[in-house]
Amino acid sequence: MKNFINEDKIFDLLEKAKRPSCHRAKNIIKKSLKLKGLSPSEVAVLLNSEDDVVLNSIFTAANQTKESIYGNRLVLFAPLYLSNRCVNNCLYCGFRQGAFNTKKRLLKVKEVQDETRALISQGHKRLLLVSAEDPAVNTDYLEEIIKAIYETKNGHGSIRRVNVNVAPMGVKDFKRLKNTGIGTYQLFQETYHRDTYNKLHPSGPKSDYLRRLYACDLAQSAGIDDVGIGTLFGLYNYKFEVLALLFHAMHLEDKYGVGPHTISVPRLEPAQGSDIATRPPYPVSDKGLKKIIAVLRLAVPYTGIILSTRENAGLRDELFYLGVSQISAGSKTVPGSYSSDKKAQGQFSISDERSLSEVIEELATRGFIPSFCTSCYRTGRTGEDFMDLAKPGDIKNFCQPNALLTFEEYLLDYNPKLAKKIKAFLSSEVRKIPDLKVRKLTSSKIESLTRGKRDLFF
Ligand code: SAM
Ligand code: SF4
């Protein structure tokens, strides 16, 4: 396995784009509005732009790009932590070996079902399974619990898409994981800078940089065509990391005909027993995070960007306008804590502690449509098929009505009070569907939902 992240090339690109002129940056921003993405050298220019006028133009263009591809939808999900017993020693993480004394715990199948029921009762339809690298979280275990999650019902509700963020595995195991019906397989490189990576991961299987770098390749080879990448911002220079993410995306696109389905942008949060997490070696300011998200939105316009509850409510509300397309809400990072009131220390501190209903109310007030849609992956619109639809903008004919249908379902089953409050907003959103046939069909499907039908989608 060859390291396809060419560090010298990245440093060279950043050096050549040092102190760019406003004129050059503005031309690149203008070009980005064609929605064809940007080259690494163009991204380096935007990353090196510090002028406030240029930054504001980047933010405006990111907002415009988000609007034209994703409209005013934001997809919601919750992480479900399975285990905090870890064989690794990532120096920034609250789960690392010996980092803290909280009881180590691996959820049993019945406990996973309790957690699932608790999340369904809030209105969730999409879960992200997260686990420390625990040898007990093997393929047999994952098969059993994913089956149990999909079978769990609570009232009208159920989980319709399970995404997974667990340690890398071999192709044979990835094939078994695919057969459980997962959506996306996610894995963050944490830092693409190899020396930094080696220092921060002193022991355990995760100390192998290339094993991690090639995990998404193996998942793709096993037929998992929606993969998610990310880095943990704060560990190394963010400009380097954004360019490395871009090179990773290009590598996947070259090899498998489709880039990553999502990019996550976690920022280091305090974690018990970790000096690095409390005092990040390369702190990223709020302004820096805004720039990261906006530049990524312009660079890879059709790739989903995921924002977690690591960020506080006020900042998250601002970042929604810059290109984020998926967010977690109401998250807990202690295994078992949705269904019981365990006050144990989580993997890291959560900053946005609002409940799912509070986040949804805020989103609707701001004119966003919270979406629980899972229809693309359930109808086979994944990987290259998804991108083929997304690129000419056709995905809007599915996504906007599906977002409205899943939001309506949420309001009927979990938040009738809010439903009354935003009735006019929802009707006006239906009226905005451009295609008359789709608009009429959406209205009739909404009618069916109010009469008790569920899970209607295009
Ligand atoms: N254990 C697996 C792994 O490391 O890939 C899977 C999930 S791990 C629980 C999820 C992610 O949490 C990691 O990839 C890392 O980026 C992030 N993380 C770890 N410590 C963190 C911290 N102190 N602040 C914010 N995110 C953190
Ligand atoms: Fe374990 Fe993942 Fe935390 Fe590393 S980041 S210590 S692998 S849970």
UniProtKB/TrEMBL annotation:
Domain Radical SAM core: residue ranges: 72-310
Chain ranges passing through the membrane: none
Keywords on record: 4Fe-4S, Iron, Iron-sulfur, Metal-binding, S-adenosyl-L-methionine
An example Gene Ontology biological process: sulfur compound biosynthetic process
One family name in Pfam for this protein: BATS
GO MF entries: 4 iron, 4 sulfur cluster binding; catalytic activity; metal ion binding
Obligatory cofactor(s): [2Fe-2S] cluster; [4Fe-4S] cluster
NCBIfam families from the UniProt entry: rSAM_HydG (TIGR03955)
Protein name: Strongly similair to thiamine biosynthesis enzyme ThiH
Organism expressing this protein natively: Candidatus Scalindua rubra
